[in-house]
Amino acid sequence: MKKNVYFVGVFAVMVSIFICYSSPISLYVSSLRKQTVIPVFVTDDLELQAKINREAPKHEVAPINARNDRVWKLVPGMDGIVVDKQKTLEKTKRTHSKEIQWVYRIVKPAVDLKDLGIGPIYRGNEQQKAVALMVNVAWGTEYLSEMLEIFQKEKIKVTFFLDGTWLNSHRKEGLALEKSGHEIGNHGYTHRMMSQVPADRMQREIGRTEEVIKQVFHHPSSWFAPPAGDYNNKVVQVAYDFHLGTVLWTLDTIDWRKTTSSNSMVQKIRTKVEPGNLILMHPTDRTVKALPRIIQEIKQKDLALTTVSEVLSSKRINAR
């Protein structure tokens, strides 16, 4: 029995000596004696982090402040995009990917549209990779269903600016617009030239339409489009008092004019549409005929079609 204990003890001592002089432990013990540090486990975290730091600027976009433009009046800003380096490192390690798995954070501009005060808006930011179709509705219903079918087929949303008198008489048709996912805006009550009426009439035109909008849709609108684009500073102020931004347009299809052909409408869009544009149209036979081609021309320029609110937002439509 004593011999067995003796041999076990000798064996344990020999194993301990072997372990102590084996690499990497022997190196570690030696480094302690020499008071130097030699890593036992090698990691590529530092190398990956260095690569992320080097390449991050290529993936970042600085925010753009909203501005008051001499020509275009109030122009929205754009959010910035920066790399979240720590989350990028964690995600890349977690997925064991050979490619860096970028994670981003949004940086809001220092100056937002609301910081600029009161003024009209004609367009979104030039870097907004989207446009909005503004459909002003003040008469008739015969072409609305065809327009809705086209929008549904193309999977796009637009903004309908509704005349209050029209909406009051066509509540069912108005509801169909919103149920299809489209945005609703205020177009005044009787299609008056707003700059040519006194302030109390301005208030009635905008206010009565807001009342009908709330009755039909159970929420207020966000934007006011003055009939025929006619406005002055007082009109903008009255709209603002109703918590509405005043919106004009960047491109006019002139589809209200009977001599305008669908081909000329398409040609205008093909040659002039740019990022951030607001495009004015109405529910006419010419518009319905041109609409599928107009949409394709816009899509071919790699521009999304969406609502006025989204185009005028600082949020990048094509944000990563």
List the helices and strands and how they pair.
Blueprint lengths: L1 H19 L4 H10 L10 H11 L11 E3 L3 E3 L4 E4 L1 H11 L8 E4 L22 E8 L6 H11 L4 E4 L1 H6 L1 H9 L3 E4 L12 H19 L5 E2 L8 H9 L3 E2 L4 E2 L9 H11 L5 E4 L3 H16 L3 E3 L1 H4 L9
Parallel strand pairs: 5-6, 5-11, 5-12, 6-7, 8-9, 10-11
Antiparallel strand pairs: 1-2, 3-4
Q: Can you walk me through this structure?
A:
With 320 residues, the protein is α/β, with parallel strands linked by helices. The chain folds into three domains: 2-34; 45-115, no CATH class; 118-311, Glycoside hydrolase/deacetylase (TIM Barrel, Alpha-Beta Barrel), CATH 3.20.20.370. 42% of the residues lie in helices and 13% in strands. It is built from twelve helices and twelve strands. It has helices spanning 2-20, 25-34, 45-55, 85-95, 144-154, 164-169, 171-179, 199-217, 233-241, 262-272, 285-300, 308-311; strands at residues 67-69, 73-75, 80-83, 104-107, 130-137, 159-162, 183-186, 223-224, 245-246, 251-252, 278-281, 304-306. The strands form four sheets. Strands 5, 6, 7, 10, 11 and 12 form a six-stranded parallel sheet that branches. A two-stranded antiparallel ribbon has the order 1-2. Strand 10 (251-252), helix 10 and strand 11 (278-281) form a beta-alpha-beta unit. The longest helix is centred in the N-terminal third of the chain and has 19 residues, at 2-20. Residues 17-29 and 36-43 have low confidence and may be disordered.
